[in-house]
């Protein structure tokens, strides 16, 4: 085995030990570098979307300049060219980072839940997609089909290039990207993000929680099938990824009624197949620890954005690996000495017993999210100080 592949296996083993709640040889350090890589390398988002070689070179630079054990994503994280081939969406790719151009995402009326629940595929295909995308709204059937085929081609190209990028990071740098392509929000998040928007779903949770829960249940069955279609078999170096948005805004009893059943159903099904799951718990989840501590043990890498990680480790440390701790505000605006003090405290308090991975509290998007000298200092310090 080559030196690069030996390094790859060593990094994968270190991260898996932490997820399975064992002490690895040292605390793993993971990258959540997103569009920050583009400004660090010196190209724009538009450049990266047009040229996958430039994208590869841009993301390779921070992956090799800093002492990371791997990354959660290894390139531009959203298929923007696919979205634009459908006639546009809510994203603007003319900016330095991925930006949402409009917050308006209410596509379905509150009176249409029954149609969604009765036959979600038919309702999405025949009603919601034509309502959302311009390519289905004008021209002949042949013209619509041609544009749709082009859009599918753009999506497949995105999928194929993600796989190519991961393989090159592995072969050329011994660097794992732990994304198996099965990425999703949860079913209730999808209703908020794509169908009802924030205001709509918050009203629905008050007025018709049973409909929200039932719709979430039928949608999660589709998501489970999609996950197994994308990733039929588990792999030590590839994880399913979930991005959870809604629970931070709802109370525990609302979570239990509308969100938890479909979320738990998904996690049980996917981990039952042998997959590990990376879950990004957005904002603060402290009010929901009593639920998520019942998730499967040793199968989940939980990234926490605003939680007190010491509290999270005490409450959830026997269930999942806790990840986070490096605040982008400190990395971007703090001193080197302050950043090192923070990392030392995190390792002192959270490393004993395993089940801790050091990473940023959120993805690094803009240049202000981290000074390179701060990022270099903390990753090099963790490499030495984080040994068990």
UniProtKB/TrEMBL annotation:
Matching entries from InterPro entries are given as:
UROD/MetE-like_sf, Uroporphyrinogen_deCOase
**What organism does this protein naturally occur in?**
Desulfitobacterium hafniense (strain DSM 10664 / DCB-2)
A GO biological-process term? porphyrin-containing compound biosynthetic process
Determine the domain of life of the protein's source.
Bacteria
Q: One of this protein's Pfam families, by short name?
A: URO-D
Signal peptide stretch: none
Q: Which residue ranges does UniProt annotate as crossing the membrane?
A: none
| Residue ranges of domain Uroporphyrinogen decarboxylase (URO-D) in the record | 191-382
Q: What is this protein called?
A: Uroporphyrinogen decarboxylase (URO-D) domain-containing protein
- Listed GO molecular functions? uroporphyrinogen decarboxylase activity
Q: What are the coiled-coil residue ranges?
A: none
């Amino acid at each position: 085995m080559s030196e690069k592949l030996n390094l790859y296996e060593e990094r994968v083993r270190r991260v898996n030990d932490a997820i399975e709640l064992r002490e690895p040889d040292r605390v793993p350090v993971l990258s959540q570098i997103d569009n920050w890589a583009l400004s660090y390398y010196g190209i724009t988002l538009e450049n990266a979307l047009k040229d996958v070689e430039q994208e590869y070179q841009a993301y390779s630079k921070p992956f090799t300049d800093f002492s990371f054990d791997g990354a959660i994503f290894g390139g531009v994280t959203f298929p923007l060219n696919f979205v634009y081939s459908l006639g546009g969406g809510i994203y603007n790719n003319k900016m330095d980072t991925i930006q949402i151009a409009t917050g308006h995402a209410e596509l379905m009326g509150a009176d249409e839940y029954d149609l969604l629940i009765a036959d979600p595929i038919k309702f999405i295909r025949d009603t919601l997609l034509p309502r959302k995308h311009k390519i289905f709204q004008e021209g002949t059937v042949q013209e619509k089909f041609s544009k749709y085929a082009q859009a599918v081609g753009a999506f497949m190209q995105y999928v194929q290039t993600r796989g190519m990028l991961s393989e090159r990071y592995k072969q050329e740098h011994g660097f794992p990207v732990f994304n198996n392509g099965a990425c999703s929000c949860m079913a209730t998040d999808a209703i908020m993000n794509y169908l009802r928007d924030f205001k709509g779903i918050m009203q629905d949770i008050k007025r018709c929680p049973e409909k929200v829960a039932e719709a979430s249940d039928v949608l999660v069955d589709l998501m489970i099938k999609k996950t197994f279609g994308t990733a039929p078999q588990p792999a030590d170096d590839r994880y399913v990824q979930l991005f959870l948005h809604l629970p931070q805004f709802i109370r525990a009893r609302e979570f239990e009624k509308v969100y938890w059943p479909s979320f738990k159903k998904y996690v049980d099904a996917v981990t039952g197949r042998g997959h590990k799951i990376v879950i990004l718990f957005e904002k603060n989840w402290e009010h929901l620890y009593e639920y998520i501590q019942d998730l499967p043990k040793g199968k989940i890498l939980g990234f926490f954005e605003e939680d007190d990680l010491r509290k999270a480790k005490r409450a959830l440390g026997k269930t999942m690996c806790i990840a986070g701790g490096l605040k982008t505000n400190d990395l971007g605006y703090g001193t080197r000495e302050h950043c090192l003090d923070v990392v030392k405290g995190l390792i002192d308090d959270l490393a004993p017993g395993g089940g801790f991975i050091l990473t940023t509290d959120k993805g690094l998007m803009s240049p202000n999210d981290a000074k390179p000298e701060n990022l270099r200092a903390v990753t090099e310090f963790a490499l030495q100080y984080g040994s068990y």
